[in-house]
Specification:
By secondary structure, the chain is mainly alpha-helical. It is built from six helices and two strands, in the order H-E-E-H-H-H-H-H.
């Protein structure tokens, strides 16, 4: 499987994980759009509660990890497995706009710090995104490959 198709399949699997969890938990889809960061699904979490919302956020990366495990057993699917695993890992970063940011915000709302959850999540998001961007910039300058830097810049812009 070529890199482009492997990545596209990994994105579709990831989003299918979100859709399946939302459907299972009775959370309606508001809309789905494609953009610079890939596909973006918006759900109506107004009646979901924080645990169910966190479960929908976690379902995309979980689908990717399961896809990577299954792909490891199939000859020729290594690229898909790698893309699925990388997509899951990146999406678990606690940055706003990524699944990890959504999970962090939901879990913070369930703690005694809940009234500060948005501010804490925003601060963590900015710190992690800045660290990721600085790492990517260092790698880009050291190795001459700016693709990771461009990717990190998209994540910073999304947060």
């Amino acid at each position: 499987m070529s890199g482009f198709f492997a990545l596209a399949a990994a994105v579709i699997l990831h989003e299918a994980g979100h859709l399946a969890a939302a459907r299972l938990l009775g959370i309606p889809l508001r809309r789905g759009i494609g953009g610079i960061g890939g596909l973006r699904l918006t759900f109506d979490f107004s009646r979901a509660g924080y645990l169910r919302e966190a479960a929908v956020h976690a379902a995309g990366p979980l689908a990717g990890v399961i896809g990577a495990i299954l792909a490891a057993e199939i000859d020729g699917w290594e690229v898909f497995g790698g893309c699925s695993l990388l997509l899951a890992a990146v999406n678990l970063l606690p940055c706003r706009g990524l699944d990890g940011g959504g999970i962090l915000s939901c879990l913070l709302h369930l703690t005694p710090l809940g009234f500060h959850a948005d501010g804490i999540a925003r601060t963590v998001s900015h710190a992690v995104c800045a660290a990721f961007w600085l790492f990517a910039a260092g790698e880009g300058l050291r190795g001459g490959n700016i693709s990771v830097l461009l990717f990190a810049s998209v994540i910073v812009l999304m947060s």
